[in-house]
Amino acid sequence: MVSVLIFMMTGLTDALANPPPACEPLRWGVHSSDVTQSSVFLWAGLSPGTAARFRVTGAKTTKPRLTEWEPVPGTGMFSQKVSGLQAGSEYAFSLEREKCVAVGDGGESSGRFRTLPADASLEPVRFIWGADLGGQNLCRKKDGGYAILEPMIRENPALFVSAGDIIYGDTGCNEEGGNVQGPVTVAQTEEEFRGKYLYQFEDAGLRRFLAATATLATPDDHEVGDDFSGRNHPLAKAGLSAFRQAFPIEAPASERGRIYRSRRLGRVAEIFILDTRQYRTPNLVKDGPEKTMLGAAQLRWLLDGLKTSRATWKIVVSSVPISFPTGYPAERNGRDGWTGYFPPSEKTQGDFPGKGTGFMHEFHKIRDHIARVPVRNVVFLTADAHRAQAIEYPDANGKILFREFISGPLSAFPGWPAGLDPELKPRSLFERIGVFNYGVVDVSPKKLAVRLADQGGKTLFEHAIVPL
């Protein structure tokens, strides 16, 4: 017995005399990605050459869960999937690193998330959607970073739906205007695309925001290159691989690169997150029956999902807008969003390469499906138009068929004037350019409320809808 005590005291003395070193500062923070009712991906950015794991504690449990120790990959982007969680529950998590202890990191190694509500749940949910961060040299500021993130943190959302262009892989950030100097201007390799994400994650406000809420992300064009179309783009493989490393996504074994998916918010809502990039026909192809933005499999998945969803609200997230024309110079490169419209303000005349492009033929399939089934209480949340806007779309009898709300930019060129394509007879309820902005959705069985807010959190527009 004495010898055992001597051994224990010796070990304690050695531990006190040789404490583990403090871990290096966590420059890129932690966040949670692609949360479901029972699982989540936890992420941390840290230097390779060590092992790490996560400690997860639920508000309804007393014993913490520890993931397995795993080596940090050479990419520096460490993620682990945690399964077996309770639906509709709050969880806290923290990163642990082998052979060192986090000392005075100000909570940088900790975060929280809430699993999605159970299928039968009627609990209300708040989430934010936004896009376009750090474009056109409107990047992280040396004094204060991205200012828009502080009011977004105060909104206390359960989810952040990142609707694309969370990085600008094809443009750079220089010190003009008080920016923090960015990495390489145009990313050409997977490592350089990762560097774009790490540049964003170095922003203290973004780290705090992502650590405090789970992210459901989809890419738009600038995660690869301006207005990119399809997997055959020379940088698509590198850019999309870096995207999935930064925001891990649960994908079926048959298609590891799949991004489109739906997430149920109980009986209240179902969110359909589209992938508008990987399967699209090149933008310059004339619109018609053979042209697609979604690809046949994703289109069928969307139509079937809208038809069979038992949720009150069907929310479709499209990284590109429906009736607002995007893609520039579109007269040479073709339209990039759903519409192929060229408003009079663009002063295009005669025949030109971009004329007759867009993807409206395919969108008519979606619109006609919603009208024919019918699918009630459909809302589209879109981005990439660099404006805040609210639009209603009527059916053949003039009644509202669905609505579209556009948010962004979070921090990029704040919009340009252009009219809406009249083909679907859109009715604009509100539009504003010239301001950074984000969108807030509060959804419950009795109401879906949308608020568009500027970079200070001031309300630009709000609109509430009751279900049919």
Distance between the termini: 76 Å
Our estimate of the beta-strand percent is 25-35%
Q: In this structure, how is the largest beta sheet organized?
A: 9 strands, mixed
Oligomer: single chain
Report the average pLDDT across residues: 94
Number of helices: 8
Percent in helix: 10-25%
Rg, Cα atoms, Å: 23 Å
Total of domains: 2
Q: Which term fits the overall shape? A: globular
Q: In what order do the strands lie side by side in the largest sheet?
A: 6-2-1-11-10-9-19-20-21
**E-strand count:** 21
| Uncertain spans | 4-12
Examine the secondary-structure arrangement and name the CATH architecture of the largest domain. 4-Layer Sandwich
Q: Mind telling me the CATH superfamily name of the largest domain?
A: Alkaline phosphatase D (PhoD)
Q: Spell the H/E element sequence.
A: HEEEEEEEEEHEHHEHEEHEHHEEEEEEE
CATH topological fold name of the largest domain: Purple Acid Phosphatase, chain A, domain 2
* Secondary structure category: alpha/beta
**CATH top level label of the largest domain:** Alpha Beta
